[in-house]
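Handout for the seminar on molecular recognition.
Each group receives one record of this type.
Step one: identify the two inputs.
Step two: read the structure output and locate the region that could contact S-adenosylmethionine.
Step three: write two sentences on what you found, then compare them with the reference statements printed after the record.
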Amino acid sequence: MTTPTTQPDIRSAVRERYGKIASEFKPKTQASCCGPSASASSGCCSSDSSDPVRLYETPEAADLPDDVTGLSLGCGDPITLASLQPGQTVLDLGSGGGIDCFLAARKVGPTGRVIGVDMTPAMLEKARTNKEKVGAENVEFRMGEIEHLPVADATIDVIISNCVINLSPDKPQVFREAFRVLKPGGRLAVSDMVSSGPIPEAIKSSLSAWAGCVAGAMDVTDYIGAIQSAGFTEINVTPVYLSKEMIDGALDQIGGQLVTDNPEDPIYKTVFSAKVTAQKP
Ligand SMILES: C[S@@+](CC[C@H](N)C(=O)[O-])C[C@H]1O[C@@H](n2cnc3c(N)ncnc32)[C@H](O)[C@@H]1O
């Protein structure tokens, strides 16, 4: 049986899922978007709760407290991708528990600042508590949707995001907003789930598959087209293929009826993580 997937339905399924993850979170028991986990509160991609920061090339990730690293729900390392510089203003779309904001804050230093935007109240609460724990004075968390950013025009040097844009039911609008808030010459450095080829209909129409970062993965050609239509140039998308175990973990979270034992199932070759960069002229 399929579920209708309207924009409000998708937003509330996503908010509900990440609200539950935040409120049930206990340090050292958490996994995250594409991962196999016994925890009911898993989110989008770091599957191994014994090493929640393994997605990151940057060694600083391991120094953050468990309250932060345990809530790492991304599918890549936008911090390494962004090559941040001291003094920059950075915006994180869908900041979750704040991991990328805290890592970015160290890179931009006391003369720079970082704004994290998230639409889930319980997640924002965790991020704000984490900010106090980390002592990240140059980080601020704002409530809002990435399709309607609570950020002024042309004020941001670099936009980062980790496994969030795939959750949006209106990705072209997210890229238009990103373009609006970036300064001329500003950059986008995003890790996200995209697809290549059709996603099976049963998965596409499942709200829990949306919230689990699978159904919302947009075809990579359309994704690039949406970035381009927003006005960006120098667009680069590099695929980072996830292991079958990670995809299985995400499928497990979606629900038994969609789990497939067939290693030839198209889903294994269809949905993947990507490093995405683009520039506002
Ligand atoms: C998979 S988690 C990733 C969190 C964080 N980026 C990380 O790497 O740990 C997705 C986060 O994006 C937020 N989110 C999803 N869709 C959103 C939207 N349309 N607007 C704002 N926040 C959104 C969720 O509330 C959740 O905190």
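Reference statements: Residues 14, 18, 33, 43-44, 72-74, 94-97, 99-100, 118-120, 123, 145-147, 162-164, 167-168 surround S-adenosylmethionine (CB under 6 Å). Residues 7-279 form a domain with the Rossmann fold fold (CATH 3.40.50.150).
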